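Batch manifest, entry 17 of 40.
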Amino acid sequence: METFVKVTDANFDGVVTSERPVIIDFWAPWCGPCRAIAPMLDEIARELGDAVTIGKVNVDEHPMLASRFGVQAIPQLMFFKDGALRDKVVGLVPKREIVKRLDALR
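Output type: C-alpha cells
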C-alpha cells in the first residue's frame, strides 16, 4: 500500500487544502538524509492512517514548487492545515520531533 501522495505542480494546492494535517516532504533521490527520513514518514503514515496526509515533492522534478516555498536545503518538511503553511523543519530530525509538530496541528 502506498503511504505517500506524489505531489506535483498540478496537484499541490489540492493536496494541502485539507482539514486534516498534511506533511509535504521536499526531497530528492540523491539525498542521503532524505532517504533516511522516508522510513520515519512511512511509519507515521501507517500509524495515523487517514488522520494525516503525507505528500512527497521531488525537487528535481518540480523545481517551481521548491522555489515557491524557498526550499534551499532538503529534506524539508512543511506542515499544512486547511491549506495554510503552519510549520516547517529542515534536515534530518527524529521521528518524535515530526510527531510533535504534527500533533500541534490536530
